[in-house]
Design a protein that fits this description.
By secondary structure, this protein is mostly helical. The chain has a single domain, classed as NCX, central ion-binding region (A middle domain of Talin 1, Up-down Bundle), CATH 1.20.1420. About 75% of the residues lie in helices and about 0% in strands. The longest helix is centred in the middle third of the chain and has 34 residues. About 45% of the residues are buried.
Length: about 325
């Protein structure tokens, strides 16, 4: 029965996430508020709302390991989908059309993954005010990233009619249902972790929560690729990964007594290592602008797809 409820609420969560993204996009086009503000803050928060809610729900039901699996698994799946679509649309050679301006985010993500790995593996094992060092690094690098974004002014559309208010109301109502659905989804997955003790909380969080909450970003990525907006598509995914780590850092504050990074199991470190490797490979791909042929161009994408699928197959069979 839990499995059926999971499928129902997973579908509902994805549907509501897509609707949220749509309403936020409409609001950005019809509001007299700056598009930079709506797109950079409101839309980013809206698309990451499922990860935010499921992460905090997992913490409050007493399973921080599930929260770790959710965030790290979501990031892993996001990179996998970049490479999957890179292979599906191989003739477009997506990485050959993207800017090196994404390198800053890639490098910050790599730094954060390394610090998280050192802490989880107990190479570094101290906290400040029960907040893990990785969280402090994530918070500092995120502030640095925001300050590094070029500031620009854009023309906002000033439409003074009731449709704007209706859109804002629809966004708020949808967000409320999204929160409720995500909470229920987390409780269901927490129950599944007890029903299937052979699977770790990190594994279940990465598979059931991580993938489900990442589907809105995948839909957005696919849409942007189809309209040849490659830079926006890539920045959407890696920006979401960075924001997800920020959610983990904020969640760390609410874990009582310990840092959230102290709650790990046998699958946590492999997921972190894969996330680090995948991010490095994407950074390399983004800087290889003159591939000799399609095979050399897509080599890293094929490696990531193979490693991702192989990791889950090994876990299922094990």
């Amino acid at each position: 029965m839990n499995e059926i409820f999971f499928l129902v609420f997973a579908f509902l969560t994805v549907f509501l996430s897509i609707k949220l993204s749509y309403y936020a996009d409409v609001l950005s086009k019809t509001s007299n508020v700056s598009k930079a503000l709506i797109g950079g803050i409101v839309l980013a928060g809206v698309t990451s709302l499922p990860e935010f809610v499921t992460c905090f729900s997992a913490i409050f039901v007493g399973n921080p390991t599930l929260a770790m699996g959710d965030i790290l698994g979501s990031n892993l799946f996001n990179i996998f989908m970049i490479c999957f679509f890179d292979v599906i649309f191989i003739k477009k050679m997506i990485f050959s059309c993207t800017s090196k301006g994404h390198n800053l985010v890639f490098l910050i993500l790599i730094l954060n993954y390394i610090v998280i790995y050192f802490f989880v593996s107990k190479i570094i094992n101290f906290s400040l005010f029960n907040i893990g060092i990785p969280s402090l690094v994530i918070l500092i690098t995120y502030i640095y990233y925001l300050k590094s974004i070029p500031k620009f002014e854009d023309a906002s559309v000033n439409i003074n009619d009731s449709s704007n208010n209706h859109t804002a109301l629809k966004l708020i109502v949808t967000a409320v249902f999204m929160v409720m659905s995500s909470i229920v989804l987390t409780i269901i997955v927490n129950n599944l972790s007890r029903i299937y003790p052979s699977f770790s909380s990190s594994f279940l969080g990465a598979i059931f929560l991580g993938i489900t909450t990442s589907l809105p970003e995948v839909v957005t990525f696919y849409t942007l690729i189809n309209i040849k907006s490659y830079d926006l598509a890539l920045s959407n995914i890696i920006g979401s990964n960075f924001f997800n780590l920020l959610v983990l850092a904020i969640g760390d504050i609410f874990v009582s007594g310990y840092s959230i990074y102290n709650f790990s199991d046998k699958d946590t470190i492999p997921i972190i290592v894969l996330g680090l490797i995948f991010t490095i490979f994407c950074l390399v791909s983004n800087n290889r602008k003159n591939p000799k042929n399609l095979f050399s161009y897509s080599l890293f994408s094929f490696i990531i797809i193979f490693l991702y699928l192989g990791f889950w197959v090994i876990n299922f069979l094990g």
